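Researcher: Good morning. I'm working through a list of sequences from a screen, and I'd like to move beyond sequence-only analysis. For each chain I'm collecting a predicted structure so we can compare shapes side by side. This is the next one on the list. No need for commentary yet; just the structure.
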Amino acid sequence: MKVFLWILLFFLLSHDRTCGSHVWFTKHPTNQTVSQGNAARLGCAVRGVTEPDIVWMKDGEKLFSTDQMFITLGEQHWETYHSVKSVQQQDAGQYWCEIEFDGRTFSSERAWLTVEGVPHFTQEPQDMATFPNVPFNLTCAAVGPPGPVEVLWWLGGVQETESRPSPSVLHVPGVNSSVKFYCEAKNARGISVSRTGTVDIKVLPTAPVGLQVVRMVDNNVTLSWKPGFTGHSALSACIIQVSSSSVRKWDFPQQEVAVPPHLHVLSGLRSHSNYSVRVSCINEVGASPYSPWVHFQTPESAPSTAPRNLTFDLTEQQLALKWAELQEEELQGKLLAYKVQWSVGGESQEPLLFKENSAQLSGGGRFFNASFQVSACTSVGCGPWSPPILVLPASVQAQAPRSHMWVGLLLGLLLAAAVGLLIAVLAHRRGKEMQFGSAFKPAGPETLVSFTAAQSFNRSCVDQQESTLDSLGINTDLKNKLQDVLIPERLLTLGLVLGKGEFGSVREAFLKADDSSVQKVAVKVLKSDITASADIEQCLKEAAYMKDFDHPNVIQLIGVSLHRRPGQRLPIPMVVLPFMKHGDLHTFLLLSRLGDHPFDMSLQTLLRFMLDVARGMEYLSGRNIIHRDLAARNCMLDENMTVCVADFGLSKRIYSGDYYRQGSVSKLPVKWIALESLADNVYTTQTDVWAFGVTMWEIMTRGQTPYPGVENSEIYEYLIKGERLKKPPDCRDDIYEIMHSCWSPVPKCRPSFQHLVAQLESLCLSLTPGPPLKEPLHYVNLEGEEEAGPGAWAPGPDEAPAAGAPSWSVPWQHRAEDEEKDWLIVGSEAALAIGGDYRYIIGPCGTPEEGEEWAEGRRGESTPILQEGVREEEDDLIINV
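Model: Good morning. Structure tokens for this chain:
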């Protein structure tokens, strides 16, 4: 029988060598049971290869090792080992070797590594929230070996009477206050203690904070706010109340919107109107108190309707025009002037401007058979025209008596002569037409208009062809994802360089929108010497990550543009981002301490910075994004001093599992990297939590470099000995305890970002509010050519400002004293909006306004003109156009 078995074994080995091109395993790993903390070693040997490339596998995944060694046992015969110096529960599993040769994969036999030690938790108690005195269950599970495993519960500091087999479910009849709990697991090797969980009582949320207007386009106002304390229950919706404080007061119905995100667009608002808004949020228990009222004013627009009831009164001396005034809601802005357009014989004359809703023009005879229309104008532009009216004398409109037929005949002859003269004048004017217009100046003192074409066109000019994503050679999925955020290069105007790095530079830029408005942005421009599609694709991946981000503490993508380079096949990609007024957080912290003008920051402000970063990272981790480069230098401060997490160049999305392994060498921030990442190149959300703890330390030290005196090459040895960043001076114990919990050597023992947000929110609420750090924000008042300082718009005399309302101005808020005090004083922007030649601006009743001078015209007639030159009067700018 033994002889037969030897013959069978020889046959199988010979067959394996023949099929496997003479490659076979001479040694296989064996099953091992090791006590926790001891060393383990698995061996594997192969014959038939010249250069070994043996890979160790664990539970179907490759094991990466930087110190793997191969021992030669003879010609084409190699042996290798996988060693674990201190075995832990996560090392338990199934191991084997693999080698690829001649297009085939050969595997050794599989062996199990079993770890004996204190119980290992497979399910630990989790935080939860409940209503008062409502029953609930707590679950705890742990395994050996060795078994069996018994579980003992601790609830509110009181031990349960007896232990239970694992897994254990503890039924709690209910509590009426917050309580802590954990479980102990025991086997023959010892006792393990689980994490401590908390049962919180659900309560009403607190009022939302940070309500503000973040954008206003075409009277669509985008609101943003931050939830207050959620009451240990997820917010389901928020209620928005809007009130109008105009002369004709009316209210919007309150709106209920789903959250998150904590954003909402108010539409249907009226132009040039004052509004107030406040927000309340709802959880399972009920609605929170309302936030303080926030006041804003919508921008002006052109009038919506034309003036009505245009009438005239014609005499030989003058023509009097009158029309109805527009109401405030029809004007949609501050009235600059009424614009009167008129034509004679089908030819348009130069339009005239009037402050009042009436006009008196001298020389009534020259307006015979003329057509008039009127429009109202604001600084944005003019509204629609009224229906035209034809000016005729009353004698022409009334029928003459039969007894005076000869008078009618005489008038008919005079009319025919006048028409003939008018035709002759028109023919004379047409004869002087030029290539781009005409110039005419017939005899007489009444002619006021000369015309020359303002623009000519060259048909031979061809616009430069825009670059498209198809020209980059990137993969189809990335191209499709970026297609709808591609911005034509012609809409971007690049400005100053804000910073440089290995990837390229960040530049200030201005982005022109479809409505001709201009937005200040920041543009990340790749290096100009890039020639490979792979480098461009890597740059655009960061933009692809940011495309779907929508959170106030995460920087959002505006778009992607392509800069065409003459003589180059590939354009340079440019990533368009919001402009951050105060730059990166690290530089801001350094300037507060070491700048030319140092300034103090309250603890509440520093905590708010930490809370903003934690909220941004909570959002990213919820979307399965690992940042991998979280630090103060990669957090930006906008004009409202809100921190936004930015720079996603090293970010990765996790599609399966809960970790990402760095497979290639790249430059990484050593002093912000977690211990397990330094050892095994493994990255998880918990590694971002480690970096967040270092970022908290940066904020508390106001920009100091972590681990002062420790070189980058020494960081791993420094951390493996249990050393951590020291407590910063003047740092409270509870704050240092939070950051220190982020540096636990066991990743699962670190708090989640959701837990960090809750802890920081509680700390912020416990502090007495200090004075706001925000500096005054200045905006240019285009109408008066002056800067509007803080508090540019305030509630009326009967309306006190709400507590906590922002004291800074926004571009669409104006002070009453900024309004023009003289309708003749028109800045260049208003002139462009209304259009026309403003050397001829006529006041009511044909008289000059205050500040004008009379100029002597021909034949002794007078015409009002503006004094030449530039003259300042009160808050307005007077320009002779």
